[in-house]
Inverse folding.
């Protein structure tokens, strides 16, 4: 009997050791899968946006504009109680307020995972990307503000060049293959995630049009429900989604931007199941949502928002204050803000240089942070109304993002590799 007990304990010990040894490999495999998916989604996003540009400058633009801007879609009930639950919006706004709430939900899940168990889980890990992200938001905003300071009605677009599009940026990294080490991809992802936190705060504080107190108070009911589910450790995601939909409607009606409901719901999802610590509801939802967001939601958003008709535009259009402020903020401001902070933080010894990288690659990453596409277009839609203003926003975002992406690709593709990598290749 004692022999059986000892044997069983030995088996359990060996199994535990194997599980522990397998965890780093599992983590690496999940990380690589994440990058592959993000990169592929970024390439699909590029294709969808390019298709929108072609259609917008063809005879089909009238149909494109009619579908996205003039067709209304309504759901819900009106005049029931104090809260009007009927929602009627154009197809474009359904995409930007509804589908993008799912995107922000995924962003919220990624933020929670990174903060609790990932690259932002300790101050030492978070310091370099956090400082770089702050610099990458502040300098582009300052450049936009400086260019538009004499036109107060245009200053509302200051946050447009402050955002980074992680899917688009990782798509560019995918094009250079093994010349971009995993540490470089992790750094870019961490900067972009912190950038997303900044964008979420900016949207909540500066781009909420009005506050409907009754709707905001009603939103407390599903919020408290989500909080209680979290505190009780409920790992079944269905009740979270149900309460989340109610929260989304209430937040939309309150005047606070509805996509923020997605972030709130994500932060309430438990990181670990109490009864099975190996199961993570956050990671389960991330894994399930990534393909839908990467290959459907973001491409549809890009297709609906990137259609800029160039008719009547000339080279002088690039010098209009909004367009110039956005393009210069993304292309010049991001590389100054991000790379300047990276260099200063590393040379002063506050944080080590990411393993297997050189300064050219870090500069290329700072350029990739200037690919603002999805988030910049989204904030631009909140900042300005009207077809003419949206054309200026889209042109500025496209010029700044494309210039950043092309120069970053050239540096990564043809620039020098780190000395250690070169020696390994020769060996």
């Amino acid at each position: 009997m004692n022999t059986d007990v000892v044997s069983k304990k030995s088996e359990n010990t060996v199994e535990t050791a194997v599980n522990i040894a397998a965890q780093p490999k599992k983590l690496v495999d999940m990380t690589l899968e994440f990058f592959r998916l993000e990169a592929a989604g970024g390439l699909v996003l590029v294709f969808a946006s390019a298709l929108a540009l072609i259609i917008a400058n063809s005879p089909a633009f009238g149909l494109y504009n009619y579908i996205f801007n003039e067709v209304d879609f309504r759901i819900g009930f009106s005049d029931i109680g104090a809260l009007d639950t009927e929602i009627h919006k154009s197809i474009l706004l359904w995409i930007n307020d509804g589908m993008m709430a799912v995107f922000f939900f995924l962003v919220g899940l990624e933020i929670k995972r990174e903060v609790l168990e990932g690259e932002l889980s300790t101050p030492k890990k978070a310091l370099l990307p956090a400082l770089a992200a702050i610099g990458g938001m502040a300098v582009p905003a300052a450049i936009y503000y400086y260019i538009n300071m004499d036109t107060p009605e245009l200053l509302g677009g200051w946050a447009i060049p402050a955002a980074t599009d992680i899917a688009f940026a990782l798509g560019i990294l995918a094009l250079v293959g093994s010349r971009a080490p995993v540490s470089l991809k992790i750094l870019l992802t961490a900067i972009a995630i912190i950038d997303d936190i900044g964008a979420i705060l900016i949207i909540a504080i500066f781009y909420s049009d009005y506050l409907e107190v009754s709707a905001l108070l009603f939103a407390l009911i599903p919020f408290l429900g989500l909080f209680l589910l979290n505190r009780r450790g409920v790992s079944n995601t269905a009740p979270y989604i149900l309460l989340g939909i109610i929260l989304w409607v209430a937040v939309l009606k309150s005047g606070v931007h509805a996509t923020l409901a997605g972030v709130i719901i994500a932060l309430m999802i438990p990181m670990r199941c109490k009864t099975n610590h190996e199961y993570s509801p956050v990671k389960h939802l991330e894994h399930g949502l990534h393909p839908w967001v990467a290959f459907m939601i973001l491409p549809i958003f890009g297709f609906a928002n990137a259609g800029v008709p160039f008719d009547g535009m000339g080279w002088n259009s690039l010098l209009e204050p909004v367009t110039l402020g956005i393009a210069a903020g993304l292309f010049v401001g991001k590389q100054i803000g991000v790379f300047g902070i990276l260099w200063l933080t590393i040379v002063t010894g506050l944080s080590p240089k990411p393993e297997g990288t050189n300064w050219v690659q870090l500069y290329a990453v700072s350029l990739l942070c200037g690919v603002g596409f999805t988030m910049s277009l989204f904030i631009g839609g909140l900042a300005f109304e009207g077809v003419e203003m949206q054309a200026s926003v889209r042109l500025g975002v496209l010029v700044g993002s494309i210039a950043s992406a092309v120069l970053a690709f050239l540096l990564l593709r043809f620039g020098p590799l780190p000395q250690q990598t070169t020696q390994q290749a020769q060996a």
